[in-house]
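Ticket #4471: structure export looks truncated?
Reporter: QA, pipeline team
Priority: medium

Steps to reproduce: submit the single chain below to the structure queue and open the exported record.
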Amino acid sequence: MTGKKKDKVESLGIVLLVLLISGACMIPCFKTGLPYGDDQQVHMLRVESILKALKSGQGYPVYIYQTMLEGYGYGMGIFYPDLFLLPAVLFRLCGASPEIAMKLYIYVLMVCTGFAAYYAGKCIGRSRYAGTITMVLYTMGHYHLEDVYTRFALGEVAAMIFAPLAFLGLYDLTEMGHSRKGLLCISYACLMLSHTISFVLCVVMGIIWVFAGWKKFAACRRLIVAVCMEVLACAVLTCYYWLPVLEQFVDGEFYVSNEPAFYTHEETQSLLAIVSGKYSVAFIEIGILALMLFVSIYKKVYNKKALMCLVTAAVLLVCETKIFPWKLIDRTPFVSIQFPWRLNMFTEFFAALGIALQSYELMTLISVRKRYMYACVAGSVLIGLFNMNMVWNIELGGYVNYPEGYADNAGSTDSIGFWEWLPAEGDLATSVGSENSGMVKCEDTYIQGRYGSDGSYEFDAGEAAGECVVPKYYYKGYEAIMADGRKLTVSKCLNNGLAEILVPPEAGKVIVKYKGTKIQYWSWIISISAVMLMLLILVMQHADEKGKIQSNME
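Actual output as written to the record:
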């Protein structure tokens, strides 16, 4: 078999293995119904909200989920990026039921996680074998499966695709001469657009990495310039998300502004919880890595990078406990991390990578290498199946059915989590939960209007005039238009956080609709232009490399 043919066969084998491992992780989804997790209703409703917005012609990005809160609308689309929910929306547009669309989406996330972990492990370990072991252990890791099935934290699940790539980008920057230009930018941009908290954690990881390698940066100013360029490119690519967020915070306050939903020092792990594997990597993986390294050090055959992975994983586990000063962290904006055990997304990767690197190093002691490789891969799969069995049979919270049109029921639209992005003046009890829900209040008069399929609210003011409070939660970007085309000023009612307009006498019909802001529009244009420019640069680089190869052949 020629080298090229062998390379293609091995590549095909890796692809099939990723698909099979991802399929094995989907076993809990083979039953009727969707495995229930903590945040499931919120994410299911997000998908349905985006779907309805696209079908009604509102376009994308969908900043306000108008169907949420029984039509009052929720600005989750502004503060919580939904780009990586689009595959689930696409499955719905293609006719899949809410349940099937979500199961297909979970499988896509599993596959992407597998390929990302394989690529990172392969590049750092310089072998396909290292990439394979990393892929199996990371994809089938306890915390990853808990994120999918116990917590149903889809934003963090998507972020776990890009965390290994972010670490690879940092490693490439200092250890490989920045040969993968743009990887840091793309991985961090995808982290920001999938899960902001994970992005913040990865930024901290990057800062620590830069400080640890400050001698290399001091000796090579080119690396400093490279980091600055990657950061700038990332900021431009993602400005359509973070600029509108800052705009809303400048305009007003939200529940998250005043009181955090969780304090990190109250959510730390006990040592017993870590050993048992609750919200943690299976302790067996750390133990296996430690045992391999101790044996290898005795034999004087060990991988320094594997040893660093073990140390890093152990330090991260300790940081999840009260030993780390989380009370001090809670006095800073980093209180938004919420749960210290989120660090396990890194712990899991370092444990997987460490086992991969050290087991590859041990191959030098074994004559029958191919059998050893197969045995290690099989052992990794068994560890993964053990993790899945723990989550499936012990931690899974049952199954829930989501039939077609379930979100059309107004009562199903009230699952919004902990109200983080509700205006600070808002209170569901006096809006959605009141006896006058869905009605306009003009002075002392209540007027019944109607919600449009495009997220608008229309009512006939009649002879009413003055300040009218509309049943829409206020976010900057709403506008009100009278029947004659005149626009009315929309502001926030300071009593309840709803949209308020000043209606003139005999205004007639008034339509209130979210049109967006100039910052939202122009930041979207900038981000799209940056994406197009990046693709153009990649095409030109590819054409240039292809031209050089052809000229060398001639």
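Status: closed, not a bug. The export was complete when the record was re-opened. Leaving a note from the reviewer for reference: Residues 518-553 form the longest helix (36 residues).
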